[in-house]
Recover the amino acids of this structure.
């Protein structure tokens, strides 16, 4: 059986939760628990070449860095130079020995413009020799308690080196790392809060929810337009989005009335779901917002050949709304009490069930680069890995065009 290949992408953020780069994960089969190039060089280079050849780096990354894991054999090969130097950080895996040849190769790559990132140097006895080449140092915070983490930070902190706290999974961990001095972070804390607490939805969210309900109930255009006019910021956001390059309209939308005429109800509903994750004074962290919108687009693309247009709109809504609990910091069932959605959408959001549930599950597996789960769900949906990857790449690229 031919190997199935998958790609994953996880954001790396600064202290304001602005995305500075993405770690790209490549898996050459469903059993691979780590980056493909740790197993077989020939097979893994084929995977990476095929993946790179299928994606537009500019669209995939925007203006961000790509962090790619490399072992010693990959580091010493010319193959790495397929990636654009100014946009690539090479993450040196711990098995790399700091020989004269390795140090020389790292220096040569840096001279070309590549960045170097060390993977958990505190766990390697001879990592200090590689520090002279380091632009980034990544520390897995699960390998140390807070006092130890503070010592590790002091050991590797240097004026020209950016330390990245890796596997940050909760807000508490994020705050602890920030207190130690870390200014860059990677992990799931922005999308998977540890606990939820009841939170009043601010007026802008209320406005969006009200408009979503009006559109869903097929209210008159005048009623919907009046809803926008009560919230100037919301009107501005809608006009800005639908005039963006990602929307693809040939004419400029100048008024809400014009927007309603041009868009139609289904498209307006879709854009309101986008506004849901970008509205509010307490802005949604950029990484969470982007993850939410990417989920919407990927869920839609995965189900594109299975459903008619109206159902594809629902797939988009399922993906975007699947992170509303994290965005609003309240349980999803409480969120859904405030907006009237089709039962099939609610079933997918609450139980990952119904006709849309499997597509949301596959989207979440892609987000986690969980190859075993991806393959299992893809087979259930009679979809091959090439199709899953194509949808994933397209979704990531589409979200970059929105400028969010």
């Amino acid at each position: 059986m031919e190997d199935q290949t998958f790609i994953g992408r996880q954001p790396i953020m600064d202290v304001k939760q602005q995305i500075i780069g993405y770690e790209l994960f490549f898996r050459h089969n469903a059993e691979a628990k780590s980056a493909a190039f740790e197993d077989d060089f020939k097979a893994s280079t084929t995977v990476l070449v095929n993946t790179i050849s299928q994606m537009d780096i500019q669209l995939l990354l925007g203006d961000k860095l790509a962090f790619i894991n490399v072992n010693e054999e990959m580091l010493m090969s010319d193959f790495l130079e397929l990636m654009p130097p100014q946009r690539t950080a090479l993450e040196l895996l711990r098995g790399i020995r700091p020989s004269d040849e390795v140090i020389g190769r790292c220096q040569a790559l840096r001279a070309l413009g590549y960045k170097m990132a060390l993977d958990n140097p505190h766990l390697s006895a001879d990592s200090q020799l590689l520090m002279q080449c380091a632009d980034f140092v990544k520390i897995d915070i699960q390998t140390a308690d807070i006092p130890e983490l503070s010592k590790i930070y002091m050991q590797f902190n240097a004026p020209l080196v950016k330390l990245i706290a890796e596997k940050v999974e909760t807000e508490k961990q994020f705050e602890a790392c920030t207190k130690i001095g870390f200014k860059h972070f990677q992990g799931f804390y922005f999308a998977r809060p540890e606990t939820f607490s009841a939170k009043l939805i601010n007026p802008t969210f209320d406005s969006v929810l009200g408009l979503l309900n009006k559109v869903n109930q097929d209210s008159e255009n005048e009623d919907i337009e009046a809803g926008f006019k009560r919230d100037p910021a919301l009107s501005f956001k809608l006009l800005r989005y639908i005039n963006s390059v990602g929307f693809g309209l040939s004419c400029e939308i100048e008024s809400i009335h014009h927007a309603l005429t041009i868009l139609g109800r289904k498209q307006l509903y879709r854009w309101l779901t986008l506004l849901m994750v970008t509205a509010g004074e307490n802005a949604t962290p950029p990484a969470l917002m982007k993850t939410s919108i990417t989920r919407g687009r990927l869920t839609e693309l995965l189900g594109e050949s299975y459903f008619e247009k109206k159902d594809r709109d629902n797939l988009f809504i399922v993906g975007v709304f699947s992170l509303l609990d994290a965005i609003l910091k309240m349980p999803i069932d409480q969120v859904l009490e405030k907006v009237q959605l089709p039962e099939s959408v609610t079933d997918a959001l609450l139980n990952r069930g119904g006709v849309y549930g499997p597509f949301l599950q596959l989207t979440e597996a892609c987000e986690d680069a969980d190859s075993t789960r991806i393959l299992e769900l893809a087979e259930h949906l009679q979809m091959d890995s090439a199709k899953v990857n194509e949808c994933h790449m397209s979704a990531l690229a589409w979200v970059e065009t929105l400028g969010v």
In short: Residues 32-40, 193-198 have pLDDT under 50 and may be disordered. The longest helix spans residues 385-402.
